[in-house]
From TrEMBL:
It comes from the Bacteria. InterPro entries: DHFR-like_dom_sf, RibDG_C, Riboflavin_Biosynth_HTPR. This is Pyrimidine reductase family protein. Residues 2-206 form the Bacterial bifunctional deaminase-reductase C-terminal domain. Residues 1-21 are annotated as: Disordered. The keyword RNA-binding does not apply. It comes from Phytoactinopolyspora halophila.
Length: 218
């Protein structure tokens, strides 16, 4: 996750991409290469025009040694399923993972049935929850596929839900040298979270950008 100095999770154009910089993008590429699966909320997938993860230029050999496909598959979380089946997120997925691994869509029982069937043509649609996604059920499903190291790329709604459910054990957080002002979303959205306790694991500076890694104490 990334924010401006004053805590905005979105740049002035309403996207997080504009807060990022080349070093942050390199870091994101490494985190993706270390992950078994990338989990993202549909809001972020839509705003940032998500496609499948691309293989890392250097780390694909390391993945192969651990029996992983060249790139981690993508898993999108959505209630409304307003995701276009012709999006590269679905149509280019197998090419990128180098395996018969389609993009997964985790949705809820209350999602529109016709959109579910349309997406099922191009993705693995999994129901995991009634009105809200059940994070434990999502992780259990991913584990049955051998996908245990889950990189959640947000956005703020999904990440807040993951934290509230007690499933975030590590946070990689970048602070970029920008002030954005206004009433911006933070990296976590929604109701306040009480009793969350984190320990700084490392902090690295590059061109006035701070790259931090935090570990949950409990
Ligand atoms: N600063 C950062 O590091 C960072 C990272 C990622 C994204 N962003 C920014 O955040 C903005 C998007 O924010 P957002 O909060 O809308 O993103 P989000 O969490 O990615 O997406 C929200 C959507 O995800 C689905 N969703 C989330 N939680 C769910 C749950 N518990 N159960 C079922 N579905 C759930 C719903 O999809 P449906 O609407 O399809 O039902 C919901 O509307 C974009 O501007 C993006 O650029 C910032």
């Amino acid at each position: 996750m990334v924010s401006s100095i004053d805590g905005a999770a979105q740049g002035p154009d309403g996207r997080s991409g504009t807060l990022s910089n080349p070093a942050d993008q390199r870091l994101l590429g490494v985190l993706r290469a270390l992950a078994d699966v990338v989990l993202v909320g549909a809001g972020t997938a839509r705003a940032e025009h998500y496609g499948p993860v691309e293989p890392h230029p250097i780390l694909t050999d390391m993945r192969a040694r651990y029996g992983q496909p060249p790139a981690a598959p993508m898993a999108v979380v959505s209630r409304r399923l307003e995701l276009h089946p012709s999006s590269p997120l679905f149509t280019h997925a197998c090419q990128m993972t180098g395996a018969e691994q389609r993009t997964m869509v985790f949705t809820v029982d209350a999602s529109p049935v016709e959109r579910r069937s349309a997406l099922a043509e191009v993705a693995d649609v999994i129901i995991a929850g009634d009105a809200d996604i059940d994070v434990k059920a999502v992780r259990e499903h991913l584990a049955t596929r051998g996908l245990r190291r889950v990189l959640c790329e947000g956005g703020p709604q999904l990440l807040a839900h993951v934290v509230r459910a007690g499933h975030l054990d590590e946070l990689c957080f970048t602070m970029t040298p920008a002030l954005t002002g206004g009433y911006a979303t933070h990296i976590l959205d929604g109701e306040p979270i009480i009793g969350s306790d984190w320990q700084l694991a490392h902090i690295i500076e590059d061109a006035s950008t701070l790259f931090t890694r935090w570990l949950a104490r409990a």
